[in-house]
Write a structure and sequence with these properties.
Layout (H helix, E strand, L loop, with lengths): L1 H26 L5 H8 L5 H6 L1 E10 L7 E7 L4 E8 L15 H8 L3 E10 L4 E5 L2 E2 L8 E9 L2 E7 L1 E2 L2 E2 L7 E7 L3
Antiparallel strand pairs: 1-2, 1-11, 2-3, 3-4, 4-5, 4-6, 5-7, 7-8, 8-11, 9-10
């Protein structure tokens, strides 16, 4: 029951974020650079269209991943925007019950292990990657950067495998140590 409430709350936040992105895109009068092209791009291919929708986190696999129960949701929309949130389920509640009155330890514990960001995305089918262009993130240092993920589809599952650029080239999928496995949310 608790997991369902968390999923519904996270889904609601991501839907709201998608609506805000769409509205902000309409209000922009002028944009420049490759991000502008991505923001207004429509889903163009069969592969790209497979991303569209909401996906719940099923598992995070990898040697470097701390063993914690997590819940997460990632959404891709038809305007070329995405949003994701992943959080551990064992985060302690604030004693005050007020997020503005948390102690330093409570704030640190709430932040630790929580990942959330949003922005436009693009699919590079030739490389087999989806690129998330971060316009906002819970970790401020990521804003303006790109998160590059190899992708694999299998039925109603999407696996994202983080990678990076080294000397202008993608690191090979075979060297990846983490896999995020998502399952399409069905109504």
């Amino acid at each position: 029951m608790r997991n369902n409430k968390i999923h519904v709350a996270a889904l609601g936040l991501l839907i709201l974020a998608s609506i805000c992105f769409a509205q902000a895109d309409k209000e922009k009068k002028e944009t420049k650079g490759p991000t502008a092209e991505t923001q207004t791009a429509k889903i163009k291919s069969a592969i790209s269209s497979r991303f569209v929708g909401a996906w719940k986190l099923v598992a995070i696999e990898g040697q470097q991943v701390p063993k914690r129960d997590r819940v997460g949701l990632i959404m891709y929309d038809t305007t070329g925007h995405m949003a994701v949130q992943i959080m551990p389920l064992d985060r302690p509640k604030f004693a005050s019950g007020n997020r503005l009155q948390g102690t330093q330890d409570e704030i640190k514990a709430a932040f630790n292990g929580y990942a959330a960001y949003f922005g436009p995305y693009e699919v590079n089918e030739a490389e087999g990657v989806v690129i998330h262009h971060l316009e906002g993130s819970i970790f401020p240092n990521e804003v303006g950067g790109d998160n590059i993920r190899y992708y694999e589809f299998s039925g109603d599952r999407l696996t994202l495998i983080p990678t990076s650029m080294v000397d202008g080239k993608l690191t090979p999928k075979s060297s990846a140590t983490v896999r995020l496995i998502w399952e399409r949310v069905k109504l």
